[in-house]
Specification:
By secondary structure, the chain is α+β, with helices and mostly antiparallel strands. 43% of the residues lie in helices and 11% in strands. It comes from Lupinus angustifolius (Narrow-leaved blue lupine).
């Protein structure tokens, strides 16, 4: 995963930008760091002495006095350098500005491509903002010490792309490591995301030729010739983990790499502090009080744990935004498919409908699925006409149909649970092992939380079954039952 020879995108790591009062103090305490993904450059003490601490570099280029410092904690692997993080340099109160990074130290597409129109053109067609930013940082990495961003990239290299748990994004895991996610939809999401990155890699030359600023600055380095795919994937994952989504700015500025941002900042699912674009800077206003030395916490948006793991390499055990997805589809072989499709659309549903199961609201999610599933079970034409003429979703029908719907749903949840190679109890036992491999730990945390939600859904379904007035009724046959996955 070492990117030492190639440029890797700068992660959204604000901590990298902490100020320093003077070089002597900085040399005594390592306050600066970029956290997140792969190694970009080998950080050496001699280089640090020669080029200065990252904080000092930021201060030299316009970073005003701030109220944070960079601290470090040991890595899970003694062969790796410690993880850096942003901490309060003094006591902070709600509403205090922790730091304000000038736009001159923020990387955006407008800056990279030199033209807002080109930036919007590229990102509305074949390439994502992340791919463009990754390409730029890879080129900058190749410039070595001549690059303006060298201190920042060097710090990112030092971190080796490790997040809060010192774990890389699953996008960079081996096949055997991805097996830790067996049974979880996240495994398929990772593979799908990797395929998307490959497609973007194949379009890099287009960006290079269309972006005038890149073409002029690197006229002889055609992207796919200069950088192997694996290196681009590492760079992409690094950018993905540190990019900041700014609000109320132009499209060419909405994705930004802001030194001192996550993952140097701790993630809190219940925190509301976010990096914000203000005038000519990006600042962080804290939403809680801090004592000097406390890690600074930010919110990365309402992301489920699957996305937190793919994007940042960690799982939040107390994430109120965690959720599962259940996909239901009406049978296209059903003679009454078009009528059912019309009824579904009339009630705000699609022929292939995605239901979100939010943590703690599993019973509500199951209840929300039932009208759609009942619609799929209607087989009698006269009954279908009654449904068409009625308003609102399909209400409970015959006892046998209701039992069939609930049985299908219960079987679906049992099947999903059976797809995991371990039980919930086994997961709990593994997580008690202090020496558990970090990647296996974070994967086990994810699947454990998924199983808890699935078990809650199964229990809610069983509760609905137990509420049926007559348990002796056999389920109705369902030749065109909806498909669940």
């Amino acid at each position: 995963m070492e990117l030492s020879r190639l440029s890797i995108p700068i992660r959204y790591s604000p901590a990298l930008h902490s100020f320093c009062n003077n070089h002597r103090a900085l040399r005594r305490t390592s306050y600066c760091s970029a956290s997140n993904h792969h190694t970009l450059v080998t950080a050496k003490k001699e280089e640090e002495a020669e080029h200065g601490d990252l904080k000092c570099w930021m201060h030299k280029h316009g970073l005003p006095p701030c109220k944070v410092v960079l601290k470090e904690k040991p890595s899970h692997d003694n062969t790796h350098k410690p993880i850096h993080y942003v901490a309060a340099s003094e006591d902070l109160q709600v509403g205090d500005v922790a730091f304000s990074v000038p736009n001159s130290l923020v990387v955006t597409l407008e800056r990279v491509l030199g033209n807002e129109t080109i930036a919007e053109l590229l990102t509305t067609n074949k390439l994502s903002e992340l791919a463009c930013l990754a390409l730029y940082l890879m080129y900058e990495k190749k410039q070595g010490k001549k690059s303006f961003w060298y201190p920042y990239i060097r710090e990112l290299d030092r971190q080796r792309g490790r997040g809060q748990l010192a774990v890389e994004s699953p996008l960079l895991w081996s096949e055997s490591e991805l097996a830790y996610l067996t049974g979880s939809p996240t495994k398929a999401d990772v593979l799908q995301r990797a395929e998307g990155i490959k497609r973007e890699y194949n379009e890099l030359d287009t960006v290079w030729f269309m972006a005038g600023s890149l073409f002029q600055q690197y006229p002889y380095d055609i992207p796919t010739e200069a950088f192997p795919y694996e290196i681009f994937k590492q760079a992409f994952a690094a950018v993905q983990s540190c990019v900041v989504h700014l609000q109320k700015v132009s499209l060419a500025r909405r994705f930004a790499l802001v030194p001192l941002g996550p993952p140097l900042l701790a993630y809190g699912s219940k925190c509301k502090a976010m990096l914000t674009a203000v005038d000519d800077a990006v600042e962080l206003v804290v939403d809680r009080s801090y004592k000097a030395g406390d890690p600074i916490v930010v919110w990365c948006g309402p992301q489920p744990n699957s996305k937190l793991l793919i994007n940042y390499g960690f799982v939040d055990e107390d994430n109120p935004y965690d959720r599962l997805v259940v996909e239901a589809a009406l049978s296209t072989e059903d003679p009454q498919y078009q009528d059912k499709r019309m009824v579904a659309q009339r009630n705000g549903r699609l022929s292939i409908q995605v239901f979100h199961v939010n943590v703690g609201k599993e019973k509500e999610a199951v209840a929300d699925m039932l009208p759609y599933l009942r619609l799929g079970y209607v087989s009698d034409p006269s009954e279908m006409q009654s449904v068409i003429s009625s308003q609102g979703p399909v209400c409970p029908m015959s006892p046998c149909m209701e039992r069939a719907v609930l049985d299908q749903l219960a079987d679906y949840f049992r099947t999903r649970l059976a797809g995991y190679p371990t039980t919930l109890a086994e997961d709990e036992s593994m997580l008690k092992d202090g020496n558990l491999n970090p990647k296996k730990r974070v994967a086990t945390q994810l699947v454990r939380l998924e199983k808890k939600m699935l078990n809650a859904c199964l229990q809610a379904t069983i509760d609905f079954i137990n509420q049926l007035p007559d348990h002796s009724v056999s389920p109705c046959p369902a030749p065109y039952a909806p498909k669940l996955k």
